[in-house]
Amino acid sequence: MIILLKLFLAHIIGDFFLQPKKWVKEKESKKLKSLKLYIHIAIHIALLFILTWDVTLWPLIITISVSHFIIDVTKLFFQNKKTKRLWFFIDQVLHVVSIFIAYTLLIENNFNVETIITKQTLLLFLCILFLTQPVSIIMKTIFSKWNIAKLTQGNESLKDAGMYIGILERILVFVFVILNHWEAVGFLITAKSVFRFGDLKESKHRKLTEYILIGTLISFGIAIFVGILYAYLK
User: Fold this and answer.
1) Which residue among 60, 177, 188, 225 is least crowded, i.e. fewest CB within 10 A of its CB?
2) Are 57 and 6 in contact (CB under 8 A)?
């Protein structure tokens, strides 16, 4: 396990601390012709050797470095201005997964899909996935009978901010419920109420207040229900 932690530490240092923004921009513009791309990979190799401090681990280090190069190049060729943010997260997830798989195959040597894809992990993934986009669409459908544009007229917000806030709060509530920390759910509701108090106080529209309260109760209610359901079925 200590080796796996060192591998992740090397990735974090190499990708987030030793990669200036100008290097990223050069890689995006020149792609495979960018010298910074190869320097970036070389830094990762050096970090892996330094942190593990074991030459016999060279097959693992080379495997991780090659996979890192392939993932970075794939990202450079497929991302564009609209999908750049999405590809950042895809890139990081793929790096983490590749490190874990390489470590399991070459060090632990006991990789078994059945030990990872269990009923509990599938159920957890299903619950979290449901609480993101599906619930957002369900709530939009529920509120489609009211014209939110009129209610929020003159009070613009960030694009899709409400959707992201809703997704994050539902996932947090779900996590708190399955960990049996109901007090944290209450704290989250209180915190949101405090932040919303200014909007509700300044707003003279009773309908907007009702809209926000209904939306909050439905969002939290669904997350609590899914959390209880997960605890019952796992």
Assistant:
1) 225
2) no
